[in-house]
């Protein structure tokens, strides 16, 4: 998956592997920090989980509506701004 994309983009095998490892380490560091934070400040966990869920929903919806990325939505910039605001509002409501 990721390594093949990096290879096709012109990275060497070593560079592609190193970038893939670094991205995996970032996830582990984030998970470890969240685990430690949830033990130190347990009341923050629901808010962090809601933010993460909202972020995933926003990313999924942005990928389902590729016209947002191309700017091909009727109504122009205002409608695009309105839809982005709706995504952010979804994150806040969660």
Task: Show the helix and strand layout.
Blueprint: H1 2-8, H2 13-40, H3 45-64, H4 67-70, H5 76-93
Helix pairs in contact: 1-2, 3-5
Concise overview:
This protein is mainly α and 94 residues long.
Strand tally: 0
Termini separation: 31 Å
Number of helical stretches of at least 4 residues: 5
Order of helices and strands: HHHHH
Summarize model confidence as the mean pLDDT.
82
CA-based gyration radius:
18 Å
| Main structural class | mainly alpha
Largest sheet: none
Helix content: over 70%
Overall shape: it is: flat
- As residue ranges, the low-confidence spans are none
Number of domains: 2
Query: How much of the sequence is in beta strands?
Result: under 5%
List keywords for this structure.
single chain; 94 residues; mainly alpha; 2 domains; 5 helices
Verbal overview:
With 94 residues, this protein is mostly helical. The chain is 82% helix and 0% strand. It has two domains: 1-40; 42-94, no CATH class. The protein has five helices and no strands. It is flat and about 45 Å long.
């Amino acid at each position: 998956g990721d390594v093949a994309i990096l290879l096709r983009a012109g990275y060497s095998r070593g560079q592609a592997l190193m970038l893939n490892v670094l991205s995996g380490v970032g996830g582990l560091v984030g998970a470890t920090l969240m685990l430690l934070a949830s033990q130190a400040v347990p009341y923050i966990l629901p808010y962090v989980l809601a933010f993460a869920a909202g972020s995933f929903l926003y990313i999924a919806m942005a990928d389902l509506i590729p016209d947002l990325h191309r700017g091909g939505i009727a109504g122009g910039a205002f409608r695009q701004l309105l839809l982005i605001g709706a995504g952010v509002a979804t994150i806040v409501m969660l």
